[in-house]
């Protein structure tokens, strides 16, 4: 049995196609996923992300505990700001990618993926033992609603007095939205400007309704996980389980910049990762654009167009609304940038290697 | 409930077949139920005109944002026409699955006895949803 979010009734009333995702019953799409994708690029989309985990780390040594537990330099984070980071195992393998918000000098919120957060909470608890800090998994109490797209600030501004102009990318602000307490974060997973609202589960339905009404004149529409996946893929953002896994280090994924060797003290994974920082990985994460219309998908082999030798593997792929062509991310042998194809169910379909991201919004 | 026109025949692979009662040339498409389950169709590959197919053969594919499915020949025969419009605009499969979204036509060789009636197909899909 999949677990419902507090917005299940809303999704059902909207006629959503529901799907199991990481043990949660989530909206896959409400109508046409292409229309939802385009609404986020051109106007705004409303997402239920209540399956994500919210783990709080508090106490006099909360910052030091996170410096030890994660690869990032969280003690250097200013209150009110957020950072993209990772938790790795002792071998340097990625256990999850995270966004950490410093809510106050001694209070952090770690946002983890739905499939991983119980494990992340357990790991943080274990790793924080030697510190004066408390780890508390509050995921059950929180709902998370995102408003993403170029019109999202206008929509949210209709419901809050909070200083949205002053809220920077990767920052969070406690505020009141439609009369309910919310942590407003300027973050997202779509490649657009947008906000994520961390709220009490009981406030999810009234806030969804208020946002739906406020967004109506701007073309806001509810968007499901299918659109979320194509949006993040166009934006070149990794998905845990696709581009990231425990078999890969942050360096393998081209995200070595998140590993902060310059921070004070030891951290889990330092010994394993330090020797790797100047070693080029054997494979590199690249963007692929198909010249034909068939879609390279997760797990399909990347081959040399000439002799058909396997030189990589697709991690995510989808038809791209913004490019009008199929796109994919793939791990490909370092140095190979031409003459590649993807083995799509037995036929070798040519692809071009491009820089990530596929899509960058106009500022 | 998605629509399941009475006058058509169906397969367990969620295809519809028109023209079974009156003759030799059968038209094949995918059902509204299947189109809705797939989501937005972005690519359709169809058999070549002139190909001889056997019932149950995989003769093409329908690809949506999230998945890809085989297209099967519901009956044996020769492919005599394919819908070029749906190749150009695969969204016809979602917009009009029983009309402009048709896929191909087959000149029947043998029989079409294994197809489902609308009633039988309705029972099949109600069991799945």
Automatic annotation (TrEMBL), chain A:
Domain Aminomethyltransferase C-terminal: 283-359
Record keywords, A-Z: Aminotransferase, Transferase
Residue ranges of domain GCVT N-terminal in the record: 9-263
GO BP annotations, alphabetical order: glycine decarboxylation via glycine cleavage system
InterPro entries found in the cross-reference section: GcvT, GcvT/YgfZ/DmdA, GcvT/YgfZ_C, GcvT_bac, GcvT_C, GCVT_N, TrmE/GcvT-like
EC number, as in UniProt: 2.1.2.10
HAMAP family listed in its UniProt record: GcvT
Similarity annotation: Belongs to the GcvT family.
Pfam families hit by this protein: GCV_T, GCV_T_C
Reaction(s) the record says it catalyses: N(6)-[(R)-S(8)-aminomethyldihydrolipoyl]-L-lysyl-[protein] + (6S)-5,6,7,8-tetrahydrofolate = N(6)-[(R)-dihydrolipoyl]-L-lysyl-[protein] + (6R)-5,10-methylene-5,6,7,8-tetrahydrofolate + NH4(+)
One MF annotation (Gene Ontology) recorded for this entry: aminomethyltransferase activity
Organism of derivation: Planobispora longispora
Reported function: The glycine cleavage system catalyzes the degradation of glycine.
Protein name in UniProt: Aminomethyltransferase
Binding-site positions, substrate: 196
Cellular-component GO terms for this entry: cytosol; glycine cleavage complex
Automatic annotation (TrEMBL), chain B:
Superkingdom: Bacteria
Residue stretches making up the Lipoyl-binding domain: 25-107
Pfam families from the UniProt entry: GCV_H
Cofactor: (R)-lipoate
CDD domains noted in UniProt: GCS_H
Entry's Gene Ontology cellular component terms: cytosol; glycine cleavage complex
Keywords associated with the record: Lipoyl
Co-factor binding details: Binds 1 lipoyl cofactor covalently.
GO biological process: glycine decarboxylation via glycine cleavage system; protein lipoylation
PROSITE patterns: BIOTINYL_LIPOYL, LIPOYL
Modified residues (N6-lipoyllysine): 66
UniProt cross-references to SUPFAM superfamilies, sorted A to Z: Single hybrid motif
Protein role: The glycine cleavage system catalyzes the degradation of glycine. The H protein shuttles the methylamine group of glycine from the P protein to the T protein.
HAMAP family, per the entry: GcvH
Quaternary structure and interacting proteins, as annotated: The glycine cleavage system is composed of four proteins: P, T, L and H.
Record family assignment: Belongs to the GcvH family.
Name of the protein in question: Glycine cleavage system H protein
Organism, scientific name: Planobispora longispora
Lineage: Bacteria, Bacillati, Actinomycetota, Actinomycetes, Streptosporangiales
